[in-house]
UniProtKB/TrEMBL annotation:
Alphabetized SUPFAM superfamilies for the sequence: Adenine nucleotide alpha hydrolases-like (SSF52402)
Pfam families given in the database record: Usp
Listed name of the protein: Universal stress protein
InterPro entries in alphabetical order: Rossmann-like_a/b/a_fold, UspA
CDD domains: USP-like
Domain UspA per the UniProt entry, residue ranges: 1-137
Amino acid sequence: MFKHIMVPVDLAHIEVLEPSLEVVADTAKHYDASITYVGVTSTAPNSVARTPDEYQQKLEAFAQKRHSVHGQPVTAKVYSSTDPIANVDDILVKSIDELGIDLVIMATHLPRHLDAVMPSHGGKVATHTDASVFLVRPTES
């Protein structure tokens, strides 16, 4: 059913991704799907990398580490933006078509009142693409 899974990754917040990464590994194995880890970074130096090329190297290392967990084919793709916070949703939507994605699995937060005014990234991606979108909520502590 699914052949190519996209996983948006923010390398500055890896710790919140773990529940969704488990779902990615299980789903990819089940459908024998390839996985593309996608990152959106600033063109200016940030806490993760000084350049988009350095961010790409770090995302590729992350993808290879995840490959060793699930064994499915992986790629890493970084998009740079002068304002990643403002542009991340549009970049993710465009990358789905560009990469031939049929399933997006992404971490999300628990619903909040602010979501009525500022929709979540997952919500925007789901309403602007034909790909299936699987949002993984954080586990309760």
